Automatic annotation (TrEMBL):
The keyword Lyase applies. Binds 1 zinc ion per subunit. The lineage of its organism: Bacteria, Pseudomonadati, Bacteroidota, Bacteroidia, Bacteroidales. Its EC number is 4.2.1.1. This is Carbonic anhydrase. Its cofactor is Zn(2+). Zn(2+) binds at C39, D41, H100, C103. It catalyses: hydrogencarbonate + H(+) = CO2 + H2O. SMART domains: Pro_CA (SM00947).
Amino acid sequence: MHGFEDDVKRFREKDFEANREHFGKLGRKQNPHTLFIGCSDSRVVPSLITQTMPGELFIVRNIANLVPMYRESVEFLATTSAIEYAVQILNVKNIIVCGHSNCGGCAALWENPENLSHIPHTRKWLELAASVKDKVTLTLKSADHAAREWLTEQINVTEQLSHLMTYPYIREKVENKALQLIGWHYMIHSGDIYQYNAGSGHFELLGG
């Protein structure tokens, strides 16, 4: 079991003290420029890969970085409400949907549903990505497992960008150029990030 007492102490004595003025400004309000929608995977650390400070990113994380299509409901909608708050209250200027390599959620799309019977809530959540599997099947001409994994993760990102455009207030801001939607595919083993180019329909190496 990992103990956090020493880690918290080091944070207070080093990182916090080194940035005391910055944290002081954040004490009463936040003004993030970007909503980062990423996977809950422990290997994906948004502030690390974007090199951002506290206060810059409003972060939503869930299994396979999914975005439910817009709907009004009496249910408790965690991801939807976080998106709503970031766009309507915090007025973020960017939304990044960040997928990643070796994504367990994307891999689970190809599992027999019976193999996921012991995680029923996860299985239900992954229904949001059902269209991804269909599109990969239509697109991929080979039986190469690595190619299928890569394509599933990337098409999943583009599908979630499409889902974001079903939110009326997001579509309006995007069309008025007040909000930018960005799709990333982060490669854990290399640190490379590929950004979706809507014009070409391809993911291109960012900063390469």
